[in-house]
Amino acid sequence: MERKNHNLVATASCEGEGGGCRERMTDDRLSNLPDHIAHRILSFLTTYDLARLSCVSKCCRGFCQSTPFLNFSRDDGMAAADTCGRHQRLLNSLERFLLLRGDHKVQRFRFVWSRNQRSSLSCICRDVYFRVMSWVHKAVKCNVEEVDLDLFGLDDPILDFPSSIFLCESLKSLSVHMERLILKILRLAYPRGIKNLNIESSSLESFTLFDPQHDLDTLNISCENLQQLSISLRAGSPSITPLIIFAPNLKKLWWRGNLMNHPNLGKFQNLESAEKCGFDMGYWKLENLAFIHELKYFTIELSDGSNGVKLAKYILEWAPKLKSVVVICSPQNLEEVKRKLAKCKMISKAAIFFKERRGKPNKDSSLIGLCLV
Hints:
Elements: E1 8-14, E2 21-27, H1 29-32, H2 35-42, H3 47-56, H4 58-66, E3 69-73, H5 74-78, H6 84-100, E4 108-114, H7 123-141, E5 146-152, E6 173-178, E7 185-189, E8 196-201, E9 206-210, E10 218-223, E11 228-232, E12 243-246, E13 252-256, E14 273-277, H8 283-286, E15 297-301, H9 308-318, E16 324-329, H10 334-342, E17 351-356, E18 367-371
Parallel strand pairs: 3-4, 4-5, 5-6, 7-9, 8-10, 9-11, 10-12, 11-13, 13-14, 15-16, 16-17
Antiparallel strand pairs: 1-2, 14-18, 15-18
Helix pairs in contact: 3-4, 6-7
């Protein structure tokens, strides 16, 4: 950060009659500090105080406008502001401050807003939300690492939270607290730097996780109204342990990549279809999945070198309501697959159909289709 040399402040004093004025030099301690230490000190101030300090002290203006910690709370700036005009001026001041700081790095962006319950004004509340979302987008451009939002007292019945923030490669922590936050669709594509992913929502209906980086260790999904779940893991990525999914109303499941060693998938009582490719088939023998007992239609495409035959045998032996099974494999393996499946003890009277695969298969992976209806 470039800043002017304000390390010394000169003051003049005169001593004695006819005495000459002499200049006394005093140190400006804040300007003498390294940037990271000064920023750490300023991190305890709110953005409102930073804006005031940058106007009062020229030597601190550079520090205030480049600090990576932005903390704003309505109560810190104008606790008694109960008019639309005062609210508007407060937000305008904050917006000017963010504009002046340019593209300096933002490590933490925190915004707290709670409207006075005695106020009947609602127009400003909508303005607050859309302004904050624009500031969040600006923080994303400045490689923000932590975002913490507390927004209460907003009158909009539905406030859609932008999913684009999850595309921020530098984002490490996101915390959102709102009274009426409705997030129905969430897509995370190529997320980086996230080790623990915890999602709890009563409104989320569709969640997609696409090719996360290898540093993702824990995945916890608790969404009672989730209906569609799609997860795609990178080839060669290690298993995620633990995996906990609570989605009692899940209808469609799609998974590509390695499945976890000891996952807790819960009971998908309303599951209608599931597709899975590229995972250890031994998992199915270790887990007593509830939907297996309701399975009616099963399709599997076997790739060369995969152990998908074991899964097919498991389905035939443990799915009592099974009506139809379709097995797709290469022409050279067709007879061998038939012999292996003929040895299993079927629990149902399902019809088995074999088809020759056309085209080049994916190496060491199988494609599976399940249907309960």
